[in-house]
Amino acid sequence: MALVVCQPIMGQKKRVSSPAKASSSSASGKYGVVLLPFEAEYFADDASTLYVMASRYDDSNILVAIDKKTGDVRQALRDRNLDDEEEMRPFVTGMGCTHDSLFLACRDYGIVRWDGKSIESSVRVVDYKAVAQAIGGNVRNILALTFSPNGRYMAALGEATYVFDREADGKLVTWTTGTDRAVVDDSGQLIAADSKAVYFLPNQHGNFIKDSFHRRLDNAASRTFEQKNGDFDQHKRGEIVFLTVDKDSVLHMAMGRRLFKMRTDGSAWETEFKLNMAPNTTLDRFVSNLHNAWGQHSGEDHFMEWNKDDLGGTPTSYGQLVTDVPDVMNFDNTKPFKSYNVSRSYMDREGNVWLYTNCYRNDVVVLNPGGIVGYNALKGKFLDRRK
After folding, report:
1. 226-284 pLDDT, tens per residue?
2. What pLDDT, on a 0 to 100 scale, did the predictor assign at position 97?
3. Alpha-carbon torsion (77, 81, 83, 86), positive or negative
4. Cα 306 from Cα 316, distance rounded (Å)
5. Residues 94, 143: contact at Cβ < 8 Å?
6. Number of structural domains, the chain?
7. 251 lies in which domain range?
8. By C-alpha distance, which of 319, 347, 352, 325 is closest to 337?
9. How far is CA 331 from CA 79, 233, 273, 326, 334, in A?
10. DSSP assignment of 38-96, as one string?
């Protein structure tokens, strides 16, 4: 099966510094469409490459790499379905990137810093056997890796949550309840969220205790959103859908119709900006690199984009993804690609948003309010999965 990549269409409209007015029900002219031979679930990017990985339920365990400068598309890891049983490589359960490297979490093996060749030849920065001895039990599946702004600490998120010190040979410093919403700051403090609360679990500074897993997040030193922001009712607040920490140790969180911030040392929450959304609607998805942002909510024109460095302004709103890219999977392939449905979203370092649509075939749409940044030659390429 081949991977087909359609040429992105650059935005023609110049970005202005003033807030953009809400548009009508669709937007076009700034999209590229990638047709994948698998269901995409994981995204990660470093300075040069964007990585897309198959669903955890896809036994092929495909990983695709897209070069940001050239637009070249290639399969980064060999397909496990095509491997000889005696040479079956470890199954990748999650991934994450620093500025210059891709890290892969591999079941029953460990976490490796990928060398661009194979898992076996890559440096293993965390050995699961050593972790299992430290915690007195098996390492649970890791679904994502995230890093402190200074790159020292790595948080592994999944069925359990682990924090490793990369400057101490991958030493385990914290582990606790599983979560898919967590970040780690430059001190090694784990900051995690469920739908309504944010929890702070400080770095134990070498005093790791084997029963720390039993200190569940809801029993940790926590600062719940309800305690600090009791002036809204539950309906308007919605659920926490975004959490990130910047290099200045400021925590940012999207919830309901607002973006909040606070310092990670425990100051009070502040409203960073309030979203101009219809009454009785709250955010379902939100991604941002703190310069660009994209969101989805339950209203009529439920997609929203913010121009770069204008996150306090009014976003452009639209009700469906309408592109100038031909829909090659349609019976009439002269018609443009359209989609109302987004299953997963990811924003890369340049501010491009990658959306897995999962309509009637497997599509990833890339968009940006000011036009697609990078990926200059992303067009008409084919990938042979057997190679």
Report:
1. 434 444 444 446 888 999 999 999 999 998 888 888 888 777 778 888 877 777 788 89
2. 97
3. positive
4. 7
5. yes
6. 1
7. 4-15+23-367
8. 325
9. 30, 49, 45, 11, 9
10. S-EEEEEE-SSEEEEEE-TT-TT--EEEEETTT--EEEEE--GGGS-GGGPPPPEEEEE
CATH number at residue 248: 2.130.10.10
> Per the domain annotation, does 387 fall within a domain?
no
Residue 52 bridge partners (DSSP): 43, 64
Token reading at 149: 């702004």
Instruction: Note whether residue 359 is domain-resident.
Output: yes
Q: DSSP label at 121?
A: T
pTM of the entire predicted model: 0.83
Residue 237 lies in a domain: yes
% helix / strand / coil in the chain, to the nearest 5? 10, 40, 50
Q: Is residue 85 part of a domain?
A: yes
Calculate the average pLDDT of the chain.
Answer: 77
